[in-house]
Specification:
The chain is an alpha/beta fold. The chain is built from 12 helices and 14 strands. The chain binds ligand AOF and zinc ion (ZN).
Length: 376
């Protein structure tokens, strides 16, 4: 009986750590979202979350928030406490100094500097360390998919966004796509842009749509603007387009291949665009190389906004982690009209990528389908 009660209250406090962690959304990268609660004699006496790089870790924020002495208390934390000296000192030291007796951890930290070291150290010092049950652990891992994929692969999490008609087209045969999805759906995209480290398009889309790609959420100017990235093998990004012209206001990065002419690269660089060269035998291999190059620059998440050719290459490379599809109740028709993904594709449906989980939401007349294909 006591066992069950203890487990239930653990679940409640762990859930609170996740709510707290989510408050840092869009502001902590390259650090994870982390929340913590200090509980003494069954009552929370302090709580906190990580708000931005360089600011105190969640554990420290929660200890600093304590209304009474945390000596003998339990610390609930959504990510294993760190044992390293980074921008801030190790949390394990602060936990030991505070006299915390028990630590309940929701999820592991797969980064090389962590990997269970903090919990081990705490145990060695006589602190009781427990890992959360499967469900809160899963929820905690889902909060930090960008951080986790980046820690494990060096590549950013890829979120493919698409606005499509009910018949699966992303434009008319003439190439018109303004606007398939509703204003409310487009506002949602701006909110997502504000949460990722980069927004990515192919050069075809950059030329055809001349997009600005900044985050302009309804809630006002976001805490950060994403890096704007163009996959542009031949460095063809127009100097008089919206992207190049705004390079001084929000960063623009062009990923070109060795085939890009030097004068074109130099002109882009002179316009304030960062130009990076990546190689690869085919388009899919180039996607992998490009993702590693972006990851090496600290980009942990990206919103891939098309077009169909680039998005198809991402699928062929096995690099689509999630998809956000805004399906509008309109029919476009046309055999030549483009659909969401081109590239090689799969031969049989048995080989098709199937989502691990799907969430559906109505946004005005549109249906927003969020599908997760991989978990990190
Ligand atoms: C955070 N916030 O609440 C926790 C983190 O450079 P530092 O010192 O801020 O260290 C960042 C690393 O610390 C991060 O990558 C993660 O491995 C670990 N835990 N980080 O930013 C937190 N608990
Ligand atoms: Zn820490």
């Amino acid at each position: 009986m006591t066992q069950t009660l203890a487990t239930q209250s653990d679940a409640v406090h762990l859930e609170r750590t996740l709510e707290l962690a989510a408050r840092g959304r869009g502001r902590t990268s390259p650090n994870p979202l982390v929340g913590a609660v200090v509980v003494k004699q069954g009552r929370p006496i302090g709580e906190g979350f990580h708000s931005e790089p360089g600011s105190p870790h969640a554990e420290l924020a929660a200890l600093a928030d304590c209304l009474e002495d945390p000596d003998g208390a339990t610390l609930y934390v959504s990510l294993e406490p760190c044992a390293h000296h980074g921008r801030t000192p190790p949390c394990v030291d602060a936990i030991l100094a505070a006299g915390i007796r028990r630590v309940v951890v929701a999820s592991d930290d797969p980064s090389a500097k962590a990997n269970g070291r903090g919990p081990e150290l705490l145990r060695a010092e006589g602190v009781e360390v427990e890992w959360a049950d499967a469900e809160p652990a899963h929820a905690a891992r889902l909060l930090n998919q960008p951080f986790r994929k980046h820690a494990r692969t060096g590549r950013p999490l890829v979120l493919l966004k698409s606005a499509l008609t009910l018949d699966g087209k992303v434009a008319t045969p003439a190439g018109d796509s303004r606007w398939i999805s509703s204003e409310a759906s487009r506002a949602r995209v701006h909110a997502r842009r504000a949460e990722v480290d980069a927004v990515v398009v192919g050069i075809g889309t950059a030329v055809a749509d001349d997009p600005l790609l900044t985050a302009r959420p309804e809630s006002g100017e976001p805490a950060r603007q994403p890096r704007r990235v163009v996959f542009d093998s031949h460095a063809r990004l127009p100097l008089n387009g919206a992207l190049a012209r705004s390079a001084d206001k929000a960063p623009v990065l062009v990923l070109c291949s060795p085939a890009a002419p030097a004068p074109a690269r130099e002109a882009l660089a002179a316009a304030g665009v960062e130009v990076l060269q990546t190689e690869g035998a085919d388009e899919a291999a180039r996607v992998g190389e490009a993702l590693s190059a972006l990851g090496a620059r600290g980009i942990q998440s990206l919103l891939l906004e098309g077009g169909p050719r680039l998005a198809g290459a991402f699928l062929d490379a096995g690099e689509i982690d999630e998809m956000l599809a805004f399906v509008a109740p309109v029919l476009a028709g046309g055999g030549e009209a483009r659909s969401v993904l081109e590239g090689r594709g799969v031969e049989s449906i048995a080989d098709a990528r199937r989502a691990l989980a799907v969430a559906v939401e109505r946004i005005g007349d549109d249906t927003c389908i969020c599908a997760r294909f991989r978990e990190w």
